[in-house]
Design brief:
single chain; mainly beta; eight-stranded antiparallel beta sheet; 8 strands; 0% helix; globular; THAP4-like_heme-bd
Length: 116
């Protein structure tokens, strides 16, 4: 199991914006994964997918969405995540999102560089 925390900040003011916390679980003996995530705007999701060792890639897609009764509009309907190890020190995450108003489309790309 992998514990996950992500926090984004406004690029100009530095104030906190979006937070996610969750767990990445592996189905033992398989390449199947489940990603359980809670968001600070009243949304929780379960995403499932697989790990491809040859491509060094994880692909996940939402299988369940729960939200608070007063979650802000437009409501998120589903996510797709692609996580790739580009090099030993570089990880890329591409997040696709579908809402009440928007078809599934790229929402953001983040590239993380390992610092020693």
């Amino acid at each position: 199991m992998f514990n996950y925390i992500s926090t984004s900040r406004h690029p100009e003011t530095g104030t906190p914006m979006h937070q996610e916390r969750g767990f990445l679980r592996i189905n033992p003996g398989t390449n199947q994964l489940a990603f359980i995530v809670s968001h600070n705007f009243g949304l929780s999701t379960i995403e499932e997918g697989h790990f491809d060792a040859d491509k060094k890639e994880i692909k996940l897609q939402t299988v369940n969405v729960a939200r608070t009764s007063f979650a802000k509009l437009p409501h998120v309907q589903s996510f797709k995540r692609e996580i790739r190890l580009l090099s030993p020190d570089t990880l890329e995450i591409v997040l696709f999102m579908k809402t009440d108003d928007t078809p599934m489309s790229e929402h953001l790309t983040a590239v993380y560089n390992k610092k020693l």
